[in-house]
Write a structure and sequence with these properties.
This protein is α+β, with helices and mostly antiparallel strands. Among the domains are: about 425 residues, no CATH class; about 100 residues, Immunoglobulin-like, CATH 2.60.40. It is about 50% helix and about 10% strand. The protein is built from 32 helices and 19 strands. The strands form six sheets. Strands 6-5-7-11-10 form a five-stranded mixed beta sheet, with helices on both faces. Strands 13, 14, 16, 17 and 18 form a five-stranded antiparallel beta sheet that branches. Strands 15-12-19 form a three-stranded mixed beta sheet. Strand 13 and strand 14 form a beta hairpin. Helix 8 runs antiparallel to helix 12 and helix 18 crosses helix 19. The longest helix has about 30 residues. The radius of gyration is 32 Å and the shape is elongated.
Length: about 850
């Protein structure tokens, strides 16, 4: 063999040696995909409906369809939510663009809705499976091939937030966050490894020594691309910028104490964030200022600030070396530089300074007030105010979580020897993600990657202890075909077999068992009742006059969107805003962007701003109506025409409504039940608008009528509340199941007037028949004035719906009956009288 043949032979040898690992990673990736698509039947329903899991996935399908309708232009401002203000969309554009491009390619430029739904449903599963690849490579560079393979296996089965958010039907950007942030860390790690290995110096840059620069430059540039992809998946991607900067500071200090140059790190950081600054620039919306939640100058400024930070850290280190200064002064110099930098930012841009100062609290701090009731931003270590590890174990398993803590401890011990940059990077990354899940459970899908890597790192160390590498060499030397495998087994030592068994039992089996629990169904949100209710809204309520798939320009700063006169809002709790918009094609007042909720944020002394929380906790119909009227800036219009409630809003979710108002006292009171005290709904609860509507069916309300209800479904809590109402407050309502979702209409109400004897009690009642065949009594009572006149405002029409208005299926079974003493009169009321507030004389 001549010398020219040797490189080819070496290349072939490396390819051959890496082929088993490549095949293993591919197989693990396919297993990860298979797990995630197992519950497809719960997404693709037999009636042809595609049920995307939860509210944000539905909204992504909405933005995807608008994008395809107007390609390549996407929706940035949406007036069909948070009525009458509209909402800017903080979702990143990349996730939708990836789905759109895939749909356009598969649909040959004109994809049908079935294809778009299929792509959207399977997309998170594919991205979740692809995450196996960067996790393998990070594990490989952390502890070798065995560590990489084990890490890939663990992330493939990782339960909790990571698996749930990458299941079929969960069409949300969270899985893209996990994939691209991990790819960013992988390429950043490769960049610093290769740059350090080649002993890269800034002199190599000035000398244009591409032999040294080529590999680190490529990896750094790709890291910048991946960071930008992560940013364009989620506007809050500065979290990993923080990870990188904290790591950089620590690594610079360690290198200084070890007498080593950190030019390799400075080069990597500068190139990475220069690329990211360039790539994010076209997506900046200047009118967003320096917002953290939208693509704004903040994202460019932080990238430029990072470049300056890496350059400054390198410059100071070089100056220390040139001047022969002691290394232990270097951290003080960095601290001083950081303080000066913050002071400069405070002077130049107070808004950016405020974001920087408050960002750690937003990410790592436990939330309080109304936002604390949002499940994904609650602490993983607390259930309310009670410390618990149940959510921790549910996301990572007990063995996985404690293995991650042990892995962090082992990596920390390495700091006292001569640590490698990649291990320091994983340590800092893992610690910050651990702090992040303390603040918000949403970051559990990130920490799952760290748990997999740290657990695999421990597993790799165990295999090293039992001399697994020697066994691996024996395998390569003796096993040439399957027939050789039995003979190979004689080389396996008992401690090696026990090590593999321990890894399987304590690391792999727990995550596998937990993962299998997710394969039966994707969950029940939205359930059939909400689907039916929203489709009813779409079919049987007036068209609000908006082009559903149009792209609308945002109004000028300080102005409101110019809605047509036919527009109206739909009031419900914020959880259901996307259901109402995406399935019902109607405009919710509140949405899962936490817009339109109203209430208070800082103190009980603040004004109780109008919104969903304020409306549903209102203590009278008049107070609730005042909230509806206050939501719309036009005094002649109300903020909502329809109110949608479900059983959960009346029971389990009601407390969250009160928390958003910061006024939680008195809705539930302790009662002695014979053996202990039990908190039961109080008079204040039953006076709330939510109770008046859902528990009491709107009985006695003057301007709110039930127009549709779904079938009864899991309403046992509602029955319990009715039992309390009847027993403790003298009520007489049937203790039966009612519709899980109920739709009410806010109307002017017909004015029924008449005369009776002065100061006499006058009653009006009728029996309401719902579309589900259920009946309940509607009644009011008043007293005639000194001249014998009386008036009722009633919301129900006895004559049925009219064209162009609500096509209700719930109405009086007969006429109203007005009674005074022994005298009764029947009164029929037209729909026009109800809608226009007309008078009907008895």
């Amino acid at each position: 063999m001549n010398s020219q043949d040797r490189p080819i032979s070496v290349s072939k040898s490396r390819t051959k040696s890496s082929l088993p690992y490549t095949l293993a990673v591919a197989m693990i990736g396919f297993i990860a995909l298979w797990i995630r698509i197992l519950p497809s039947d719960s997404v693709f329903l037999s009636n042809g409906f595609v049920r995307f899991t939860s509210n944000d996935p539905l909204y992504h399908m909405r933005t995807l369809n608008v994008l395809l309708e107007n390609y390549p232009h996407r929706m940035f401002f949406n007036p069909m939510t948070n009525y009458p203000a509209g909402s800017y969309i903080h979702f990143g554009p990349l996730y939708d663009q990836m789905m759109a491009i895939t749909s356009l390619i598969l649909g040959l430029g004109s994809p049908g809705q079935d294809l778009v739904n299929t792509v959207g449903a399977y997309f998170p599963a594919v991205l979740g499976a692809l995450t196996v690849i960067p996790v393998y490579y990070i594990g490989k560079y952390l502890g070798g091939h065995k560590t990489g393979i084990l890490a890939a296996i663990l992330i493939a089965f990782a339960p909790g937030q990571f698996l749930y958010r990458s299941m079929v039907g969960f069409t949300d950007h969270h899985v893209a966050e996990s994939l691209f942030s991990t790819l960013f860390m992988m390429f950043f790690m490769l960049a610093i490894i290769t740059a350090k290995k080649k002993n890269l110096r800034f002199e190599h840059v000035t000398a244009k020594n591409f032999t040294v620069l080529k590999e680190p430059l490529i990896y750094s540039a790709i890291a910048g691309v991946m960071y930008s992809a992560y940013q364009l998946s989620w506007a809050g991607a500065s979290l990993f910028l923080l990870v990188t900067l904290v790591y950089a500071v620590i690594q610079y200090i360690l290198d200084s104490f070890n007498g080593e140059s950190s030019d390799y790190l400075g080069f990597t950081g500068i190139v990475t964030f220069l690329v990211s600054a360039i790539l994010i620039l076209p997506f900046v919306h200047p009118d967003m200022g320096f917002s953290f939640y939208y693509y704004s100058w903040f994202h460019v400024a932080t990238a430029i600030g990072s470049i300056a930070g890496f350059a400054a850290l390198s410059f100071i280190q070089r100056e220390f070396k040139n001047r022969g200064l002691k290394a232990y002064y270097y951290p003080l110099a960095i601290l001083g530089l950081g303080i000066l930098g913050l002071l400069a930012v405070r002077i130049v841009s107070p808004s950016v300074y405020s974001l920087i100062i408050n960002a750690p609290g937003m990410v790592f701090g436990v939330q309080t007030g109304g936002i604390s009731t949002v499940e994904e931003v609650s602490s993983i270590f607390y259930d309310g105010k009670v410390f618990t590890l149940s959510k921790v174990f549910g996301n990572f398993t007990a063995s996985g979580f404690f293995a991650s803590l042990l892995g962090i401890f082992v990596l920390t011990i390495n700091l006292f020897s001569k640590p490698s940059p990649e291990k320091v990077l994983v340590l800092v990354w893992s610690l910050l993600m651990l702090f992040a899940i303390y603040g918000q459970v949403r970051y559990a899908n990130y920490y799952s990657v760290n748990v997999s890597l740290l657990s695999a790192y421990l597993g790799g160390l165990l295999l090293e202890k039992v001399k697994w590498n020697r066994l691996d060499e024996k395998f390569k030397a003796t096993v040439k075909s399957p027939a050789d495998f039995p003979g190979f087994l004689r080389f396996v030592k008992i401690e090696q077999a026990l090590a593999v068994l321990a890894i399987a039992i304590f690391l792999i089996y727990p995550v596998y068992g937990s993962a299998m629990l997710y394969t039966h169904t994707t969950g029940g949100d939205p359930d059939g009742t909400w689907i039916e209710a929203c489709l009813w809204l779409k079919a049987y309520t007036p068209d609000p006059g908006m082009d559903y798939n149009a792209i609308y320009e945002a109004p000028e700063d300080g102005e409101l969107f110019n809605y047509p006169d036919s527009a109206y809002g739909v009031m419900s709790w914020w959880d259901y805003g996307h259901y109402i918009e995406t399935l019902g094609h109607r405009m919710p007042n509140a949405n899962p962007f936490q817009a339109g909720i109203g209430g208070r944020r800082g103190s009980i002394d603040e004004p109780n701003m109008p919104g969903a929380a304020t409306f549903f906790t209102a203590q009278s119909e008049e107070e609730a109506t005042a909230v509806l009227e206050a939501i719309h800036p036009d005094p002649d219009k109300s903020g909502a025409r329809y109110i949608v409630s479900d059983e959960m809003m009346a029971t389990g979710k009601f407390h969250a409504m009160t928390v958003w108002t910061l006024d939680t006292d008195g809705y539930y009171q302790p009662y002695w039940t014979g053996s202990n005290y039990q908190y039961l709904p109080s008079e204040r609860y039953f006076n709330s608008m939510e109770s008046r509507l859902h528990i009491l069916d709107g009985n006695g309300l003057k301007q709110y009528r039930l127009v549709h209800e779904t079938w009864a479904y899991q309403t046992q809590q509602e029955i319990g509340y009715k039992q309390v109402y009847n027993f403790l407050y003298g009520g007489n309502i049937p203790e039966v199941d009612t519709g899980f979702v109920k739709i009410f209409e806010y109307v002017k109400g017909a004015k029924i007037t008449g005369t009776a004897s002065p100061n006499e009690t006058v009653n009006i009642n009728t029996t309401i028949l719902t579309g589900q065949g259920r009946t309940f009594e509607y009644s009011q009572s008043t007293t005639s004035d000194a001249e014998g006149r009386y008036e009722f405002t009633v919301p129900y029409s006895t004559e049925g719906p009219v064209p162009g208005e609500t096509q209700f299926d719930t109405a009086p079974a007969g006429a109203y009956v007005v009674s005074c003493g022994d005298t009764t009169r029947e009164v029929r009321v037209s729909e026009e009288a109800v809608l226009n507030g007309e008078e009907v004389k008895v």
